Sequence to fold (147 residues):
Amino acid sequence: MKDNKSEIGNRKSKIKKIDHIGIVVKDIRRVIAIYNSSFGMEGGEIEDIPSYGVKVAHLSAGDSSIELIEPVSPSTGISRFLEKRGEGIHHISFEVDDIQSSLSILKKWGIKSIDKVPRKGSGNTLVTFLDPKGTNGVLIELLQHIS
Ligand code: ZN
Fold:
């Protein structure tokens, strides 16, 4: 890693904040009701994300946010996750200024993206997932707000 470091210099993929934590669920409507009533979290509007074959809903508490994800298409990574591992925490989403620039920096550190190109995420965002082999088994989503 020392050689890599000198080659990259001080370039880092600067993370602005943790945007949200993604949780895979079987029945998004039921879970939204639980988060709204039991935890008093706000939001929960359901949005279809065809690029990933899922429905998502964001719930917030202050600056923090949870993303509930229900797979709607059988052949997606998220539906396989639900089949194999059941409901639970799926990913952590880091907000960055520029996904492409972050990806090119991370690539030099041996951290690759799963997606060939970043995809349209929920709301006005562009997202991509990093290969967990390079991130200690954690599925990390990079998220960029676009206007
Ligand atoms: Zn996410």
